[in-house]
Every structure is written in C-alpha cells, then in structure tokens.
Amino acid sequence: LANPNDDDDVGLFVLASATESSSWDEGDENMPGAATTDSEEARYDEKRQRRRRRRRHPHDLYLSSAELGNAFALTRLGGLCDDGSLSPRRVVRAAAIVEDSFAREQQEEEEEEKKGGGGGGPGCLSDLIPPLRSRDGEIDARAVAMGLFRMGALSGNPNAQASLADSCMELSMEALSSIDNDDDDDEDEDQDHHHHPARIVSRDLRRAAVALFGMAAQQGDGAASDSLSRVLRLEMQLCAEGGMEMEEAMGGPAFRTAGAAMASEDI
Length: 267
Known about the structure:
This protein has helices at residues 9-21, 38-54, 58-67, 71-82, 88-114, 141-154, 158-185, 197-218, 222-242, 246-250, 252-265. The two termini are 41 Å apart. By secondary structure, it is an all-alpha fold.
C-alpha cells in the first residue's frame, strides 16, 4: 500500500487517506528545533527535499485515483474543491477530470443518437452545474466540486449524492434570493409568478436535490434523510405560497424517489 501502482485507483485512494490523516504539512513538518550552522541547515534541507520528492502529496494521490474513476476519490476531491483546500494548480487538474467526463458523455450521447437511441441518460444532471470556466478562462472551484460530486454520485456513492444535493440546494436558494431582489425592483405586478426563469432554475435544482437526497437516504445515510425532510418541508411551504400541488411542482420521478426513501427510513 505504501507504493501503489499508478493504475491502482483503490491503492492510491487508501494511501492518500492515510497520508492525509498523518497531518501532512506543505511546510517543514520534520524541521528540527534549530539548525546550529548554515551547513547543517543546508544538509537538512537537501535531505528534506529528497524525502518530499519520494513522498507524494495526498491531494495528488486523490487526483490520480479520481482520474481512474474512483468514486471515493472523486467525492473527497469535490469536498476539497468546495472548501477551497486545493491549490490552484490542482483545481486545474480537477477541472480537467470533469471536462473529460463531460466530453465522454457527449460522445456517447452522439453515438446513441446515431444508432437511433435516446439521450437524457446520466448527462442530464450536467445541465444543473454552472459553467466550469468563465469567459476569461477562470475556473469556478464550486462548479468543479459539483462536477466531481456528480461523477461520484453517478457511481452510486451516497456521500457524493448528498454533497451534490447540498450544492444544488445552495444554488436553488441563491436563485430564489435573486427573484426576491428582482421583485423589489420590479413595478410590474402582472408578471407570471411561476414562470420566472430563476424560479424554474430553483425548482429544477430542488427536484435534483430531492432525488439525490432520496437515493443517499435509501443507502442508509441518516443525514441525507434529515436533509430530505427539510427540503420537502420547504417545498410544501413554497407550493402553498404559489398555489401549486406539491407532486406537480416536484415532478413525478423525484417525488416518487423521495416517497420511497421516506418509507424505507420512516422519516
């Protein structure tokens, strides 16, 4: 396990986790209390550099494992992107993982269309993820995190499903907040309440969150069960305010997934 092969996604992930838990420090974690002379300090620095070259950073190990499709590594990387722990260089590498995944899915969908099949498979959730790069090429770390969570979620990882659901809810609430700000500035009282573009985006994000929390809850994730209950209560409130039936607002499949999760977990 100390020296996994480059094609061993599990070994790379295990080593990354073990290295990370041993409190890796980007600085001089093994620096002695003081070097008494310049020559001693130089010798120590040379030895430290040799050790560092032999010892790979856990984030690089997670990246290597994720590049091989390891769902746990993808999920962990998503968390590191989301909380700003990855260095800019590693965020670029993480973004490339997501972009490669999107490109493969696009190619698969095009091949299915040529064969006369339908699209709308796993790639559907990609529509809810913000662009990975701005017009000037700057990478959005949160969008990269969502892309990584999505890849892990599609592999069935409940932590990735719940994390992606959390991100969807954050974006959904931001969209609702933007509607409130628009309403404060808009003197037109006759605009269609239900068809405001941001309201539709917010609703679709909540639908995705319900489905994702539901799938994670069905796999025994207690926190996802609690989150699902909160989202459903919020949806009931929004439906009451908008005069809509909840099942209509949430959509059949997502609503049924939530119902199944609630039944199995006795939420």
